[in-house]
Structure formats: C-alpha cells, structure tokens
Amino acid sequence: MQKQRLDKFLSETTEFSRSRIKKLIESGHITVNGIKAEPNYKLKKEDKVDINVPEPEKSKLEAENIPLDIIYEDKDILVINKPRGLTVHPGAGNRSGTLVNALLHHCRDLSGIGGVERPGIVHRLDKDTSGILLVAKNDKAHQVLSAQFKDRTIQKTYLAIVKGNPKKDEGTIAEPIGRHPVNRKKMAVSHKGREAVTHYKVLKRFKEYSLVELKPKTGRTHQLRVHLAHIGHSILGDPVYGKGNAQLLHAYKIKFTHPRTEKELEFEAKLPDDMLKLI
C-alpha cells in the first residue's frame, strides 16, 4: 500500500468508481491528513484518508408515465426493449418524453453515476434505433456493467435491413471513425478517427435489400450506420447516412455477466412490426 496511488486505492476499497473518486479528490471532498491531495498522491502507511461525500444533486427532470417494454428486471438491473423514436436521455431543448423520464416514474432507485441527466444509463442507443438497452439500478451495478463495456466482454447483436446485396455473405469492416470534417453533427470514416470494427453476416437476400446481422467489436458513435454506408449498403430509412425517416436497425440480442450473481445472461428483443413485415 505504501506506494499505491490515492485514487487507485480508494477505487479498490470503496464502492465508488475511479472517475468518481477523482472528482471527489479534485473538489476537496477527499483529504489526506486533513489536507487536499492530488489523485496521484502516493499513500504512506501512516496517512489518514477522510472521505466526505456531498449530498447528490437533485434531478430537475420530471418523472413521466411513459410505457416501458421491460424484458427483465431485478434489484440491480433493467433490460428494456426501446422503441424507435424514443430518445434515451434529455438534452438541450429536450427535457421530457425520454427514456430517462420513463425510468424515473418506474423506479426511484437508479444509479447516479451517469449524473442527474442520465440516471441508470450505462450505454445508449440512437433515437432512431430500437432494441435492447441495459439500465443500472444502483452504483455498484453501473460500475460493473461499465467495466464490461470498457473491456468489450458484453456481446451485442443487431439486425438491420440494408440497401442492396453485399458481395460477401459475411465479413469485417475495420475502418476508423471520427467527426465528419464538414458536417460536425455527423460521423465519418476518417484516418484521424478512432478504431472501429464491425462484423457482419447476411442472413437473407431480397431483390433490392438484405437482412444483415451485425456484431460491433467497438462502440463508436453511429458506428454501424457509418460502416454500412461506407461500403455502399446504408441502413434502410436512415435519415442521416441514407434516405428516409424510419431507420430499420434493431439491437436484437445482448449477452453479459450479471453484476451481482456473476451469472452469464442473454436476452433478445422482438423485432419492430415494420421490420417483420418487410422481411
């Protein structure tokens, strides 16, 4: 312990994540021998560490009685089938009608790690993407699930209906993704971007489109939409990277380790009616 960093030691011996510990240290809520310290302070055997956790900031968001399609729930997690068109969390000029508003009505004991604007939100789906979303109901569950996402041990499978017929029945798209050089609201394949890898498999071919299974290895913003558009097979209805306003991309399956029981769990979310009809 003598040479261990303060932030690392506390993240291993308390229920708080390392990022949360760092914020508490920097705000002066964690002291060493009564003095404000740095996150990289090297602890000595006789040091006295005090933690004064401030009262959590109260959310100004309204709880709203918005129906939720709950696939699974226990005291630690929720697994939800999110409909297309539902925004996950509030943003500028969008304070209501989101999944977070619905979650606040459904349960009051959500994880606070995501902040007052994103309680319980471990990962996200685009507004126009439907399917499985994991929600943490306490900080410990949030911390464990976030670590699984970071380590890429959570397996996510998507189904999409794309324009045209890919030449290969299956393959891998490994192209870095970054902010679009002109339109800053879009993402694009860019040599200056971050690593992005998508595995795909054609499940069924039709005359003008194909049903494709997608397994992202990384989780970049708009990754699947950008990668498919890059190879000339944009997702049908994609309003940004294709044409239309009813994007046919669905987070179909998720596989992860339960944060408390450590059992491997797998869930599926039924396809939206319009995708089923088109197939």
Automatic annotation (TrEMBL):
A Pfam family this chain is assigned to: S4
Catalytic residues in the record: D126
GO molecular function annotation: RNA binding; rRNA pseudouridine synthase activity
Swiss-Prot/TrEMBL catalytic activity: a uridine in RNA = a pseudouridine in RNA
UniProt-listed GO biological process terms: enzyme-directed rRNA pseudouridine synthesis
SUPFAM superfamilies given in the database record: Alpha-L RNA-binding motif (SSF55174), Pseudouridine synthase (SSF55120)
Signal peptide as annotated in the record: none
Known EC number: 5.4.99.-
Domain RNA-binding S4, residue spans: 4-67
Entry-linked Gene3D superfamilies: Pseudouridine synthase, RNA-binding S4 domain
InterPro entries, alphabetized: PsdUridine_synth_cat_dom_sf, PsdUridine_synth_RluA-like_CS, PsdUridine_synth_RluC/D, PsdUridine_synth_RsuA/RluA, RluA_PseudoU_synthase, S4_RNA-bd, S4_RNA-bd_sf
Domain of life: Bacteria
Top enzyme class: isomerase
UniProt KW keywords: Isomerase, RNA-binding
SMART domains: S4
Known function: Responsible for synthesis of pseudouridine from uracil.
NCBIfam families: rluA_subfam (TIGR00005)
Cross-referenced PANTHER family: MITOCHONDRIAL RNA PSEUDOURIDINE SYNTHASE, RIBOSOMAL LARGE SUBUNIT PSEUDOURIDINE SYNTHASE D
Family from the record: Belongs to the pseudouridine synthase RluA family.
Protein name listed in UniProt: Pseudouridine synthase
Protein's organism: candidate division WOR-1 bacterium RIFOXYC2_FULL_46_14
